[in-house]
Design a protein that fits this description.
The chain is 85% helix and 0% strand. By secondary structure, the chain is an all-alpha fold. It has one domain. Helix 3 packs antiparallel against helix 8 and helix 7 runs antiparallel to helix 8. The chain is elongated, with a radius of gyration of 21 Å. The N and C termini lie far apart (48 Å).
């Protein structure tokens, strides 16, 4: 595959940013005008939210287990094993819960959106929708955007809960800590700013997952091979964006709440 010249690469990059921004803006503003496809929104909520629950629960639970083991090993050198609950709760709520949930949902749903919409694009179903007077962005992108943002918020809460529960299981069963003390320390460690920070990140992650997946799906070219390429690009780009935005949101929240 020949390399593109710097000029063509710059033009393609600017065109991609412009196309992505336009698609995202149209998807956001479509909710404030008719028609609204609520049935599609509910369908996507079921597919994205309920369908992602098993992988989110398992990821959060075993992350909490591993985090408790690692924390206890490090804290044992300082004689502070009782603070394991503090570390697990802060790590899960502020960072690991939102990021891992975003990455898991990205791998499952950004790829699904790109492949589904990409298949419709290469088989000219999207062109047929336009010919029948239906806006593809309003019909396909907007329901996925709002369903992803809404459900990822609750999936993150679920991941945090099971992560803390996994840490409690390891702390009580393997480390011999008191369960009541563990949960008390976990509760006392969390402050208002920590919870706000942890629940703000999934809003951005959900937006990234839906818009990136739909963007690559809507711009699929080249038949079935193009669908596979769009699917791969959607997962890679959305995962990288989630991590970058996580850094920016964390820095902003530290500036606001001081922790």
């Amino acid at each position: 595959m020949p390399f593109a010249s710097p000029e063509n690469f710059a033009k393609q990059t600017v065109a991609s940013i412009q196309g992505y921004s336009t698609l995202s803006w149209r998807a956001i503003t479509n909710l404030f005008s008719r028609p609204r496809y609520w049935a599609d929104v509910y369908t996507q909520m079921d597919s994205i939210g309920v369908g992602s629950m098993p992988i989110v629960v398992l990821t959060g639970f075993f992350t909490g287990c591993v985090l408790a083991l690692q924390s206890a090993t490090s804290l044992q050198a300082f004689g502070s094993v009782s603070l394991t609950g503090n570390l697990v709760a802060l790590s899960m709520v502020k960072e690991l819960g939102p990021v891992l949930t975003g990455l898991m949902v990205s791998g499952r749903n950004a790829s699904g959106m790109a492949s589904e919409i990409g298949s419709m694009k290469v088989t000219e179903q999207i062109d047929a929708m336009r010919a029948l007077g239906t806006d593809p962005v309003r019909k396909l992108v907007t329901p996925r955007l709002y369903a992803t943002v809404f459900m990822l918020f609750f999936l993150t809460i679920l991941s945090d809960t099971f992560g803390i529960a996994g840490g409690a299981l390891v702390s009580v069963a393997l480390l011999g800590l008191n369960g009541s003390t563990y949960f008390h320390n976990s509760y006392r460690a969390l402050q208002y700013g920590d919870v706000v920070q942890g629940l703000t990140k999934p809003l951005f992650s959900g937006f990234i997952i839906a818009t990136v997946g739909c963007y690559f799906g809507m711009n699929t070219k080249g038949g079935t091979q193009g669908v596979g390429k769009s699917t791969t690009q959607a997962v890679v780009v959305s995962s990288v964006f989630i991590i970058i935005v996580d850094l920016l949101v964390t820095r902003a929240m530290i500036g606001i709440f001081g922790r």
